[in-house]
Amino acid sequence: MSDVIVLKKYANRRLYDTEKSVYVTLDQVAERIREGNRIRAVDAKTGEDVTDFILTQIVLEKARQKNALLPAPLLHMIIRYGDNLLGEFFD
Q1: CA spacing 20 to 30 A to 45: which of 10, 23, 64, 74?
Q2: How confident is the model at residue 26 (pLDDT cuts 50, 70, 90)?
């Protein structure tokens, strides 16, 4: 079973690793995930779970670095149909 790393996300977009007591970058978080860890990210002020947002941010940043973003027509469809499209796709 993999470890769960709890991150706090601050308003200034910084991420704080509560296990190691240090600020971390998205690249460092991605590396920890590749090592087999899971993350749970919470907004430092509200306590809201923002894990999905952080994971999406990591994926989009990697895609941007490789200039391999999703094609515009697909992005338009995702925005147009919202959760319904993605929910049906993954079901």
Answers
A1: 64
A2: very high
